[in-house]
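User: I'm curious what two different proteins look like when written out as structure tokens. Can you demonstrate?

Assistant: Sure. I'll show them one after the other, since each token string lines up with its own sequence. Here's the first protein:
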Amino acid sequence: MKKIWNLYVHDMKQIATNWVAAVLVGGLLLLPSLYAWVNIEASIDPYANTRNIKVGIVNEDKGAKIQGHAFNAGKEIVRALRNNHDLGWKFVGKQEGMKNVRYGDYFATIVIPSDFSEKLATIVQDRPEQAVIHYYENDKKNAIAPRITSKGASTITEQVSDQFVAVVNSVLFSIFHEAGVALEQQLPDIRHFETLIFQLQTKLPEIKRLLNQSMSDAKEAERLVNKAEKTLPEAKRIVNSGIAFLDEMNQFFTKAEAKAKTLTPQITENLRTLQQITMSIYAVTNKLQENLSLAQQRQWLSDVQSMAAAGEQMADEAQTQLRIFNNMIEKRAFSRTASANMEQLSGRLTGIKSNLREAQRLAKLAYEQSENGAQLGNHLLTDLNERAAAAVKQVDRVMNEYEQHIAPLMKEKMNETKQTLQDARRILADIANTILELERFLQHAGSGLKQGEEMLQTASDQYPFLARKVNDIASFLVKLKKETNIYDIIRLLKNDPRAKGEFLAHPVDLKTHRLFPLPNYGSGMNPFYTVLSIWVGCLLLVSLLSTEPYEAEGYTSREIYFGRLLTFWTCSSIQALIVTLGDVFLLKNIYIHDSGWFILFGLLCSFVFIVIVFTLVSVFSDVGKALAIVLLVFQIAGAGGTYPVQLIPEFFQNINPFLPFTYAIDLMREAVGGIVWGKVKNDAVRLMMFAVLALLLGTLLKEPLNKYMHSLHAKAKKSGLFH
């Protein structure tokens, strides 16, 4: 313990007596606070300057009327926005507004279309149309600005909705008021008619059911007949087109059959000739394996070249004939199997041509060597023989496949297809005759249905009042008698329409209670930037100060670890004091609820952070510095310092509980907004657990890894790139 203290005192003396060291350490102590203060001051209240965010407003609304009440929602929006300074509203034409948002001069442009009020007025119609405000935003201009302008657009929509609801409610309650007055005037007639309604009610349901059922059946029958009459000409046309198409197909297959009879023997003859040529080439290449004179070899090789060229030409002709055959097949697609087989056969002919070309090349090469007096190599003659053998096998396979599968399949499919076409034409002819009979039947049925429907309509016209009103009025009167008094309804309808409309436009008011109020955005970001600057300060310390003393003789690894840790902790504590005191006393616009606890929590964070960072660097040397930076990167993204943890990707949500920043930021937030001691205790305990784990890591691993880390550091230093 004494050596640890001696090492710590020695470090402090070195800083105090060496003015260069004192200046450098002083800079290290001050730099983190500048990082925090600048960022906090820059984010004091960015939303207070939203009036500088330009948003174009284009009003093309022409106005409308609701029950005689004229209104123009677009003008009301513009009038309200001229007194609204939340955003920098610019009232321009559509062309200018769209140009400015495209070029980034405006963050967004809101267009109120010409039929905006007109669609709002459809609220009194059976099928109202929803009014639309077009919102154009430039997302690439800035990541945050579109969210602010979008909120502005939502505010406009809510404002229009509130104003429109107030107008509509006022109109509707005016109508209700007029209805109440009219109802009061007609009350004697209603009482007189009430008796008649109840007398008719017992008989009306059955009469109405029968009448409606009859009308419905007649109309449905007429609809079906009309639909059938309209459909028959199209069916007739389709059937006639089908017959014509089948006739055309029969002519095609007659021609195709004749063409097939011509092509089939030609293809067979070409394939047999190709077979003979490849067998001859193979026989010659076998002969070349024997001991022959140079003159004999050149003669045989010349023959091979000629035969290979002739075979390639014959394969090409057969391939052309197959392609003609295949085109006839694909034109009408009557046999996909035959077409596919021909494509496969054509591909194999391509392989035969490839082998023949290669044999021709090898023969030419051997001929040139022989002509130069060189002894032919065995591998060259062997390759030539193998190419010839492969060509023979391929030709045999093509010949067998064509004679045994493709030619018989083509003949079979053509016969089947021709028979199918003949059967189909016979069926379509029968359908055509049936359509003619159905046309005559529908003409007579349509005339009879029309007469029956006219008679049912006459019967329905005799009971218009009973059919449309009796049941509704009777049910209404029964319910009215049970639930309320008609005089109460009249009084309710005659209430003040304006007062009712204004109430329904805003029936609920939201009252917000802020439990831990902060005056500005910068106060909310203070914990994050303060914690971040403390960690950055630790990184600066381990980057510029050595974790190992230059004179380490007489000290154990653990003594060096704890002695130098005290030095780093002292510097980190001073950094934390400067940052937190500056937050409290220098940043006048920043609110901190408990300044004393804010400073103490900062010191606790600095202790935990320096233990973690120092241990990583002390134990793992330069690798530890990289680990500390990686840990910083993950903590910035995953600790919830800027966005709530619930909004960040799932990976960062999963690692959030295992990051020191998570609890350090929460701890500082308690001091800034107002302390809940249960949360403080939880955060402090978890923070100290990180420090304990780091201390155990340094105590247990410092000495075993020291030799390896020194060796690794020495090798890195030899590169001339690392200090």
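Here's a second, unrelated protein for contrast:
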Amino acid sequence: MKPISPFSLSCILFSLSAFGQENWSHWLGDNRNGISAESSGFEPGKPWPPGPPIWTVNVGEGASSPILVDGVVYAFGWENGENVTRALEAKTGKVIWQESFPGPRFGRQARGDQRMYAGATSTPEFDAESGFLFTLSADGDLVARNTKADGDLVWHQNFYTLFDVPRRPQITKRKNTLRDYGYTTSPFVFEDWVIAEVGDRKGGCVKAFDKKTGKLAWSSENRDPAGHTGGLTPMTIEGVPCLAVATSYHALVLRLDGSNAGKTVAEFPWATDFSNTIAGIAAQGNELLIASRYNQMAMAKVAISLRGGAKQVWRNQYPTGVCTPVIHDGRIYFANKGIHCVDFKTGKLIWEGGRIGDAGSCFVAADDRLVVWGNDGDLSLVETAGRSPKKCTVLAEKRGVFNSMAWPHVVLADGRIFCKTVNGDLACFSLKGEAPAAGTPSSPDTPAAPTEWKLSNWPGENPAGLIWSWKQGDGLAKRSVAARRAKMEARGSAKFDANGAMKLDGGGFLLKGVSGALMDRMQKSNAFTIELIFQTDDLRQKGPARVVSFSKDPYERNFTIGQEGDRLSLRLRTSTNDKNGMKPELKLMKFEQGRINSVCLTFEQGSFVGYLNGKPVTRSRAVTGDFSNWDELHGLILGDEFSGGSRDWKGTIHALAFFDRALPESEVAARIQLAAE
């Protein structure tokens, strides 16, 4: 009998400890293999999950997955020009601590597919020995924070700055497949190192840093550009600790033992269009799985040895594009273009089924069931082949948890399932029968609004800085001192309802004679407040759907207030960003369907504040510059794009006002009362 290696022993001891603590502390869980020691909690004849989410919060944009350690959820996301790390109480979703640092929405070498790869993509990594949490931003910021000291910064390195990492090259011959999504792969802690796929073509693709100081410890022999993948995969080859990495060109296996660390064990050729082996590598023993849809359209099983390198065992035509395969009890499971079960020994398909598209992730629970998260927010429970050997059996589905791509990996820890979308929405389902706690984010987080919006005295008597206002009942002609010739023109099916409010369901209201005065006043002050009292008809609107837009077409604007799902956004053109006002686009407050809400958006000297029903809910200093580059030929329209047709909004506008100054918080609160009277 061979002795157990120190690497294997440390994994076993750590696993036993983690199971007792019921954590999910790394990419793919405590054992980094997508297999949980906890049951799915399914009981025949009862709903699964047992109830609605016990809380939901937004943790910032990106495909980064949450992790959980000792009752604390750690989440990493991007919002309003900041990379934000949050520690949340797992039971309530309440913020324990929050830290951030400035950074772009995309990596500095970004190229292509930005709708899908915006914000933080890499999953945080937790080190139990030090209590440090490691995050890696899209722009290459590897950051260590001390969770024992409320997230205090320990050290911070940037890969682009340190190693002058170039843009990923064109990998295959297929045209228009050059992509660079920035940094996507989760860091990996091993002994005294935190290891990352850096993509330094001169100094080594993979690098290890001293986890306590950030000092470079070693670099890999391999110098491939980094791939686009979810995480690094531990392997033990003939008793030697190793690491498997999906680079842009290979399934790379390298050593982690002492002075051999970074040396190449094997390089299995695996080049894909877009550098996309997103699913990464799964491993069991000395064998690994690598798969990609794209040009490969295959999954391969590869045997690794220290002397013989890599040898293909089989290759099939059942690829996974996004979901990392889970190897369990002689079978392979993945959720991509359906839910699939494949024989690990032969590569032959056992069964497939389910309603999963491109976006999907899964893990195997201790009761031999698959928990699947996919599409635009669908949570499913599926029998493994151990329970259903001949067909895909879906036990339960909860569809439409959210309404955006469910690419982040689903998590189970301490009797709770955590589901996240690329928009940053995070839901917690309790398998223990916990009820939503009053006063937690599980309760509606929209600040209370008046029970009635009479608008009798609104907008007030000559409020300072008012450029133009309109409220229900004013009709098509509404003039002000600043916009004497103002009038509105209804387009398409836009109309007034019985109360005289703007009813929008295709088409829009063009504001004539307003844009000139608005532009002149706002350019002089380089400040504004936009007050909007509105109600949406549909939380599934995308584009974003245009609520208020001062623009030329879908690609050029002075500003646009839009709706994306259950959240507003602001695109604001300034002298320091582009014509589309998307660098950055500000993600604003969430709101509810079937409810009238008041929104005030204020901007002055690079400081933005968004108010919902009189309460400040969004603050940002990410947008800088002035309005000197605004275009006077752009048109001001409500419910559509100025060029028409492609970004219709469905809802009702009850009142709207533009000011040439940023209203203070006290005045915004007073205007809520004014609107109610």
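A detail about the second structure: The chain is about 5% helix and 40% strand.
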